[in-house]
């Protein structure tokens, strides 16, 4: 098993990527990790040398966070992200991970790795934390702003397969993001998708309202990229605002500071439960190879989580399972 890591993408690159690769190499000696990037930028972080299962692939360029995605992928053919994608395309790596420019990674997936036969629109599928600690796989959360009912059906099938292969779920519960739980609710897109889901080989549990997503009412949440991305940003914003208000209130007086000291362990557990680092690693499902997106601010712990998710998906034969599901369609 070979995993290519874009060592130059992300806020903490290349330090976070290198530290994660070295930890992963020690934890999984049967896996080869290929750090893709500028050798002169990587070398200072190789204290004591590299283990046998960690190698470096040279990439002279870097796609920056503010680069226009498609133009960058087409012009910076020697960038770490594109080189890693090309390795997946050519079979030199079984998967790639990048915490770099999200749009550019999507473009790399489509233009370099290629779309899987039978798939019309690949979907970005991150894990969201839930109160039961199981998490929910949500797709699409931003790869495509517009979708057809058939696209949502493909997301449901791919998401269900992912949870089976990567997380060992026998029958993942699939929900459709909507404005109400009733079957007749929603716009034309969700109404038509609802009918398709009812007749699909999935465990469809019906419509799911955004307020219930974190309660763990489903294992796979399907939506179009526009609605999904709005939901994601709203959840992130609400979580950040709540923690900000708590911090202000618990440091306002000496009494509240005393209470905060007593409650600190509990707040720590809450923060960990909602920490994206515990769920890092969103696959771009529907490509002819495994491409995984790490959060842009991923530290080494978050990158290690992404590596773990990638290994599990590869071990479970995710790509082969999706190809088998859509072959001939």
From TrEMBL:
Subcellular location: Cytoplasm
SUPFAM superfamilies attached to this UniProt entry: Isocitrate/Isopropylmalate dehydrogenase-like (SSF53659)
GO aspect biological process, one term: fatty acid biosynthetic process
Top enzyme class: transferase
UniProt keyword annotation of Lipid metabolism present: yes
Keywords: Acyltransferase, Cytoplasm, Lipid biosynthesis, Lipid metabolism, Phospholipid biosynthesis, Phospholipid metabolism, Transferase
InterPro entries xref list: FA_synthesis (IPR003664), Phospholipid_synth_PlsX-like (IPR012281)
Keyword Lipid metabolism in annotation: yes
Cellular compartments per GO CC: cytoplasm
EC number: 2.3.1.274
Gene Ontology molecular function terms on file: phosphate:acyl-[acyl carrier protein] acyltransferase activity
Pathway the protein contributes to: Lipid metabolism; phospholipid metabolism
Catalysed reactions, semicolon-separated: a fatty acyl-[ACP] + phosphate = an acyl phosphate + holo-[ACP]
HAMAP family the UniProt entry points to: PlsX (MF_00019)
Function recorded in the entry: Catalyzes the reversible formation of acyl-phosphate (acyl-PO(4)) from acyl-[acyl-carrier-protein] (acyl-ACP). This enzyme utilizes acyl-ACP as fatty acyl donor, but not acyl-CoA.
Subunit details: Homodimer. Probably interacts with PlsY.
UniProt record similarity statement: Belongs to the PlsX family.
Protein name, as recorded: Phosphate acyltransferase
